[in-house]
Amino acid sequence: MSATTPFDDDDHALAAEYVAGVLPLDEREAFERRLQADPSLRQRVRFWDEQLLPLTESIIPVAPPRHVLQAIERRLFSKAGAEGGWAQSLAFWRGLSLASLAALALAAVLYLGPLNPANTNAPNYVAQLAGPQQVVALAVLYDAKKSEIRFNRLSGSPQAGRDYELWLIAGKNAPMSLGVLPPSANGVIKVNAALKDKLPGAVLAISDEPAGGSPTGQPTGAVLATGSLATI
Amino acid sequence: MPPGELSDLIGRISLGDRRAFRALYGATSAKLFGICLRILKDRAAAEDCLQEVFVKIWQNAAKFSVSEYGPIAWLCTIARNDAIDRLRRRKPQAVDIENAMEVAAQTPDPEASSISKSEMARIENCLGLLKPDQAEAVKSAYLDGYSYQDLAERYRLPLNTLRTWLRRGLLTLRACLQQ
Prior knowledge:
The complex is a heterodimer.
Chain A: H1 6-20, H2 25-37, H3 39-52, H4 66-77, H5 85-94, H6 98-112, E1 125-129, E2 137-143, E3 148-155, E4 162-169, E5 176-180, E6 186-190, E7 203-210, E8 223-228, E9 230-231
Antiparallel strand pairs in A: 1-2, 1-9, 2-3, 3-6, 4-5, 4-7, 7-8
Helix pairs in contact in A: 1-3
Chain B: H1 3-13, H2 18-40, H3 43-67, H4 71-89, H5 97-105, H6 117-127, H7 132-144, H8 148-155, H9 159-177
């Protein structure tokens, strides 16, 4: 693909105009609709968002008045106005590219060995766990017949004296521990019977914890990778 | 706060961690409020904008990890987009350019910078390749939220002529930034 075709230039210029903010409202909204469906356009926008970012250094930071934080927290966390982050997040995770999940499902079967579909009524799941800093990446397969999660570590291992802990987040509930990740490149984690029916639509996450896992029952360290469970 | 710590906080927010949300607010709200204020030039509107920005940060934190954005770019982009959307939706009103330029002329403390000198030098060098008017138009669009309409009035050019002129500048800028 040449970067100099008129079509390319057109989309590059449009992405630049969008990020610079010069478009009139109707063109801005039309562009945002295209952006939803077009990953290559999103890459172009990201290029400009990252490249022009240093210009914001010339803007003087201004501490906002205290009532703004209060209004935000009231809106997000008070019972009446509660709007969970997870509903939004899950919609997003479910929207992850089917192609990449299909590829992952195939890879998971190749990596982890074929599943025996006989007598397996409950669905199996796959997930790909990754984070912004690529500290750790896992491919995960839930085998319903054996009630176990099999994982294949694509990269990353904890620092000395630390462990990675795997979490299940179902809906708006607090994370539930699936246990400390064994240090091996691949392995198995048994899934407690009580957690099995939480799996559909759930998200898995890995956090960095003291050796032996979180002392509090909730993540205490950095969240290094997340990914949603997809049915296979 | 180093970008790695900001990424960690956003990761924790994606798991519903309210303390991490407060910590992120403490570390970034002044920068983001500055952005909203600069674009909207109205304190009450900028407060509404900041509120919406942090609601979006809470709701979309899980998207950050796959967005491939750096944390500062991700946060500032949410703020700029919300502020510009607000600006475009509000009834047209006269922008007091002289007054705005005065605000813009103040410079912040470089010690507080979270963006490296080399990144800043890069964009400044590339803007230096444009005609001075073009570079100024790009900056004032990005920082002050001026639309093509505002810029056409400011440079006293027909809208289409101005658009062609600015697009050419943006494509030159892109060629330079891609080096």
